């Protein structure tokens, strides 16, 4: 189950990284005449935090999956339960910060689902919360 949860967390992180990169690319290269922000380029402050969080999570999940699936019993860290739990709790705070900030900034996006940029934001919020829920489950059942 542990390997499956780390795999799911890795998948959610990769998807959220891709969505965050798509969002930052869109906001920094607004087409002329785009109604968003009067057509002037900008960036959402939560996006760099989500990119950082996903990159750290991809590294952590990859390390744990590598250690779990390989014969690396010579390495002490993070084979110990406490070491892994500390890493998960740190990630949990990153994810709750990113998911909470994204939900606070964008909120309910049901009114604009006809625009692809809005659908990206909806998916971005969803995968931020999926990652946090996965981490919460991993911590709760550890």
Description of the molecule:
- Helix 1 packs antiparallel against helix 2 (46-69) and helix 2 (46-69) runs antiparallel to helix 3.
- The protein has helices at residues 2-28, 46-69, 81-106, 116-140.
- 23% of the residues are buried.
- The mean pLDDT is 90.
- The termini are close together.
- It has 142 residues and is mostly helical.
Helical content stands at over 70%
Unreliable residue stretches: none
Query: How confident overall, as mean pLDDT?
Result: 90
Strand percent estimate: under 5%
**DSSP summary, beta strand count:** 0
Order of helices and strands: HHHH
Largest sheet features: none
Concise description?
This protein is mainly α and 142 residues long.
Topology:
Elements: H1 2-28, H2 46-69, H3 81-106, H4 116-140
Helix pairs in contact: 1-2, 1-4, 2-3, 3-4
Features:
0% strand; 142 residues; elongated; mainly alpha
